[in-house]
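User: quick one, sequence for these C-alpha cells?
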C-alpha cells in the first residue's frame, strides 16, 4: 500500500471514530425525546409524535453499527468489506440527507401538527381516554392547553406535578406554569433544530467517508 493509500486508511479510520460518536449522539437525542414525552405517547392522538424519535434511534443504531464495523474493516484492509462499507455509507448518506431536507422543508407544518396533538388531548381529556392532559402536564411541567385559566377553579393535580388526581394543586405552583401547547411545540422546535443540523453534518461526513472508502478499496485491489 502506497503512502496515499495509507493516508486514506488512517483518515478513514479517524472519520469513522467521529461517525461512531455521531451515531451515539442520534441515539441519545432520540432516547431523550421519547423519555421526555413519558406516558403521553400512550394517547391515541399522539402516535405521530413517536415517528421522529424512533426514526432517529434507528438511524443512530445503524450508523453506530456500520461505523464500528467500518473501523474494523479498514484496519483489516479487505477490499470487499471496504466496498460493502462504502455502499452502506452511500445508503446512509441518502437517508440522513432525506431526513434533514424533510425537516427543513416541513418544519413549520410539522410544528403546527404538534400543536393540534395538544388540542386533541385537551378535547379528549376524559376518563375514557385516560386523561391525556395529565400525562402531558406531568411530562412537560405545563398546565392547560393555552394556560391554567382554562381549568377555572378545578385545576388538576397534574398541573402541580402530582400523579394522584385526588391531591389539591396549589396556586403558587400552577400559576407559574405555561400552557402545554406552547411548551410542547417549543420542545419539538428545539429538538428538530438539533436533528436537522446534526443529520446534515453527519450526512456530509458519510459522503466524505464513501468517497474515501471507494478510493481505498480501489487501491487495495491494485496491490
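Assistant:
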Amino acid at each position: 500500500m502506497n503512502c496515499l493509500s495509507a493516508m486514506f486508511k488512517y483518515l478513514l479510520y479517524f472519520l469513522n471514530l467521529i461517525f461512531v460518536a455521531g451515531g451515539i449522539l442520534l441515539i441519545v437525542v432520540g432516547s431523550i425525546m421519547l423519555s421526555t414525552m413519558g406516558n403521553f405517547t400512550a394517547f391515541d392522538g399522539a402516535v405521530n409524535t413517536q415517528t421522529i424519535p424512533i426514526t432517529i434511534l434507528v438511524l443512530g443504531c445503524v450508523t453506530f453499527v456500520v461505523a464500528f464495523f467500518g473501523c474494523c474493516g479498514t484496519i483489516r484492509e479487505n477490499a470487499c468489506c471496504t466496498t460493502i462499507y462504502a455502499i452502506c455509507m452511500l445508503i446512509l448518506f441518502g437517508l440522513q440527507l432525506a431526513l434533514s431536507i424533510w425537516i427543513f422543508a416541513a418544519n413549520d407544518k410539522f410544528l403546527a401538527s404538534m400543536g393540534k396533538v395538544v388540542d386533541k388531548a385537551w378535547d379528549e381529556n376524559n376518563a375514557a381516554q385516560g386523561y391525556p392532559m395529565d400525562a402531558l402536564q406531568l411530562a412537560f411541567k405545563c398546565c392547560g392547553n393555552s394556560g391554567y385559566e382554562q381549568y377555572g377553579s378545578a385545576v388538576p393535580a397534574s398541573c402541580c406535578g402530582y400523579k394522584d388526581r385526588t391531591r389539591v394543586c396549589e396556586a403558587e405552583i400552577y400559576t407559574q406554569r405555561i400552557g402545554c401547547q406552547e411548551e410542547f411545540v417549543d420542545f419539538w422546535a428545539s429538538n428538530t433544530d438539533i436533528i436537522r443540523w446534526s443529520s446534515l453534518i453527519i450526512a456530509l461526513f458519510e459522503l466524505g467517508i464513501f468517497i474515501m472508502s471507494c478510493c481505498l478499496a480501489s487501491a487495495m485491489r491494485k496491490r
